[in-house]
Amino acid sequence: MAIPPSSAVAVVSVLSIFVFSFPATVLSETFRQIFLPPPAFGPESIAFESPGGAFYTGVSDGHIFKYQPLTGWTVFAFTSPNRSVAFCDGTTDPNKGPICGRPFGLAYNSFTKLLYIADAYYGLLVADSNGRLARQIATSAEGQPFVFLNAIDIDPVTGNVYFTDASAVYDLRNSSKAAQVNDSTARLLKYDPRTSQVTVLLRNLSRAVGLAVSRDGSFLLVSEAIGNRIRRYWLTGPKANTAEIFLSNINVVRPQDIKRTPSGGFWIAAASVKQDSQTLVSIRIRVDGSGRITEMASLEGQYGSTLISEVQESGLSLYVSSRNASFIGVYGP
């Protein structure tokens, strides 16, 4: 049953957001919340069908919901063949993930109408327009099983699917242990829909949790939350199949997901340390294709100490997801 958008959206009056730009400026924009249907919680990622139109998000109980501006939320799909309504619906317990599933990264192919899913426990999956149980298409690469699939994106030129395995040792339930030991066993991978072949592109990454392919398909960016940096991996040209540091030493921590912008840049979700309290607050960062920071804004006014997962530009708005919240945040003009 669809939940009407009028009951699912809360709008906050116009607010001012301090932007640590170069130079710093103050922007005025509205902020609204698209609340998930209770008791759903933890939208990790967002995938749009079209700019400003319908979108998908995965939540903590293993469901993938679809939001349509005119009709609201509906259950679209799930990733685990073992999940049950009684055991899974509404759960936020990560220990139930191996049974219920936990969709993290989502990427929609507007040409094939397929939704690709990186599930923390069930690997790489795909759902067609009918939804329901997603089809599992990969659980390992080069003989090594996936442990914690996280980020995903689709090459806009070739249709290849790129995704990350955040660790070869520590799954979602043991994320804190990975940070304690500075785990660097993550991998960057490619799935070719034409051959169904999975290829390992990079190894020994430090918690690879973000990924975005450039607008022209010449390179991709992958974020390392433990390494506090972003790498560029070249897909075409004279540097093809090589990697380099794209962004580091920018006084932020835990860079999360990355999303390309319509203009060819990228949005990065991250955190910054407040100097007065030494606590973490969420920030959004916009960079151009050369790694130059064009905006760095605090989201503390709307999210407090809640950390975000993703910032994505669609239509005239920015959509923000967090696996620590019960809503999608929308910043608009």
Automatic annotation (TrEMBL):
Alphabetic keyword roster: Glycoprotein, Vacuole
InterPro entries according to UniProt: 6-blade_b-propeller_TolB-like, Strictosidine_synth_cons-reg
Domain of life: Eukaryota
Example of a GO MF term: hydrolase activity
SUPFAM superfamilies: Calcium-dependent phosphotriesterase
Main location: other
Cell compartments where the protein resides: Vacuole
Cellular component GO terms held in the UniProt record: endomembrane system; vacuole
Matching Gene3D superfamilies: TolB, C-terminal domain (2.120.10.30)
Ranges where the Strictosidine synthase conserved region domain occurs: 150-237
PANTHER family: PROTEIN STRICTOSIDINE SYNTHASE-LIKE 9-LIKE, STRICTOSIDINE SYNTHASE-RELATED
Family per similarity comment: Belongs to the strictosidine synthase family.
Record protein name field: Strictosidine synthase conserved region domain-containing protein
